[in-house]
Each structure stands twice: as structure tokens, then as C-alpha cells.
Write a structure and sequence with these properties.
The chain is mainly beta and 70 residues long. It contains one helix and seven strands, in the order βββαββββ.
Length: 70
């Protein structure tokens, strides 16, 4: 299965893959701090375990960082 993740096509052997499993497979640091968009829709964190990513889907991991001027 091929999925585009953050603009790069990645291949996976699994036929079905949840967003939670995808975060683990991609070794995302601090997944609790990442928002996920699938095919343009931002997911609720509660849906990570039940949302299945399919062949050809586009996934974006959105990392929010604090900071700015003092």
C-alpha cells in the first residue's frame, strides 16, 4: 500500500493501517503532540485508533511548536 505522508510517498506491507499504527510505524516522537490530517480533514485525537488509512491517501502530521519573541 502506498500513502503520501508529508509530501513523500511511503510504502507499507499492511493492507489495513490505522492512524495510530501509522504514527508508530513512522516512529513519530511524542505522538500525543501531533495533529493528523487525512485527505484534507483534521482528525479528532479520539479517531486515531479507528480511522483506517487506505491506498493512495494523503496524510499530514502537523507539529505545533511554541516560541516567539520575548
Amino acid at each position: 500500500m502506498n500513502i503520501q505522508i508529508n509530501g513523500k510517498v511511503e510504502s507499507f506491507v499492511a493492507e489495513t493501517l490505522t492512524v495510530s499504527a501509522l504514527l508508530v510505524a513512522q516512529k513519530v516522537d511524542m505522538p500525543e503532540m501531533v495533529s493528523v490530517e487525512v485527505n484534507g480533514d483534521v482528525l479528532d485525537r479520539d479517531a486515531f485508533g479507528t480511522t483506517v488509512v487506505k491506498e493512495g491517501d494523503t496524510v499530514e502530521f502537523l507539529y505545533f511548536m511554541g516560541g516567539g519573541r520575548a
